[in-house]
Design brief:
With 160 residues, the chain is of the alpha+beta class. It has helices at 41-52, 75-86, 105-113, 151-159; strands at residues 8-10, 16-18, 26-32, 57-63, 128-131, 137-141. The chain starts with 7 loop residues before the first strand and ends with a helix.
Length: 160
């Protein structure tokens, strides 16, 4: 059975990273963008990371430019924006596609495991997936779901 740990991704610094590095942690995977109405969620995501990191939560940010060109920058610009404006310290990855034929394999898997209401396609930036310590997806959250609303589910995932 496929798990989060079966994938790898390129960090925003260009390093190929095996996601098995996060084995045993609860993981929140988020497709992000710098010029989106939901961009202020970076603040809440960073707060979740700071609050729960010592208990075993990691947030993984995957910039995506598939929704109205809301992530036009290169990796350096994205990284600077996140750090300067939101103090992002959680791991960020290189820009990827989350839908279509070129979708990153991680997102193909996440969509197949936790489809949306009408289809499995990611509908917008800041769609969130909570992965349990066992590497299996627990829940998918819409872009409109604010990070602070995930606290109960995160605490349950960390407790397991």
């Amino acid at each position: 059975m496929t798990k989060l740990y079966d994938f790898s991704a390129r960090t925003i610094d260009g390093e190929e990273t095996d996601l098995s590095e996060y084995r045993g942690q609860a993981v929140l995977v988020v497709n992000t963008a710098s010029k989106c109405g939901f961009t202020p969620q970076y603040e809440g995501l960073e707060e979740l990371y700071e609050t729960y990191a010592e208990q075993g939560l990691v947030v993984l940010g995957f910039p995506c430019d598939q929704f109205r060109n809301q992530e036009p920058g290169d990796e350096g610009e994205i990284q600077e924006f996140c750090q300067v404006n939101y103090g992002v310290s959680f791991p960020m990855f290189s820009k990827i596609d989350v839908n279509g034929d070129a979708a990153h394999p991680l997102y193909q898997w996440l969509r197949s495991q936790k489809g949306g209401v009408l289809s499995s396609k990611i509908k917008w930036n800041f769609t969130k997936f909570l992965i349990g310590r066992d590497g299996e997806p627990i829940k998918r959250y819409a872009s409109t779901t604010k990070p602070e609303k995930l606290k109960g589910d995160i605490e349950a995932a960390l407790g397991s």
